[in-house]
Amino acid sequence: MVYRANNMNVLWGIGRLAVYFTETRDPTSCKCGETWGTPKKTLYREICTMTWIRTLSLGEADEKLRKAIEGEKAFYPKEYAEPVHPDASGASSIVGSHTLIPDALYHAFATFGALMSPDLPLSRRQHEMIATMVSVTNRCVY
Amino acid sequence: MIEALQKDYTTAPITPQERVMVDYVVKLTKDATKVWKDDIERLRAVGFDDRGILQITLIASWFNYINRVADSLGVGRGE
Questions:
Q1: Do A142 and B49 touch (CB under 8 A)?
Q2: Between A104 and A47, where is the model more confident?
Q3: Which residue of A28, A68, A102, B56 has the lowest C-beta tally within 10 Å?
Q4: DSSP secondary structure string for all residues of A25-89
Q5: Contacts of B56 in chain A (CB under 8 A)
Q6: Domains of chain B (ranges plus CATH)?
């Protein structure tokens, strides 16, 4: 399964913006059946988004999980609402990685949404700079 | 700007205020025990109030959290 990530306008990509611009991978490096290797400078990259643990799709979610996902989304500024790295359900794969513990999912991502509020002092440019520098410093592959 | 940050943030086209912010974020990410009161004073000196300093700290900490979750559980890493 291949997903295409547009890095320009959705927050899930902001920690990865720099990587999209510069990173390519050997297509054989992913053995899960997904493919890698969109050329540099396209602003797009096809990525493998599977996790190594079981996750629940929206179709499998019980009411508690559905409420957790809908609840945390309510905190997002409008422009950050669409996931860059959707999983099979269309949700963000990083959100999906939390689905076995709905309370943790809700609190983790509601915190994120609250921190992006336009009512707080930092600008979106500053959000993106922080996220980029953290991910670059950590050499995070996501 | 993002590409320049990744390549070498010390030469990226950012404002002096942003540079202080990024220095703090990198320091916090590498080893938060190295952050000291004078780092907070530097942020204040370039115009961030305490609410802004808290927001910088929480966003940087949140992304450190999510980076570790993603890398540890294989999000985006394949098998």
A1: no
A2: A104
A3: A28
A4: --GGG--SS----PPTTSSEEEE----SS----TTT--HHHHHHHHHHHTTS-GGG-S-SSB-TT
A5: 122, 126, 130
A6: 14-69 (1.20.1290.10)
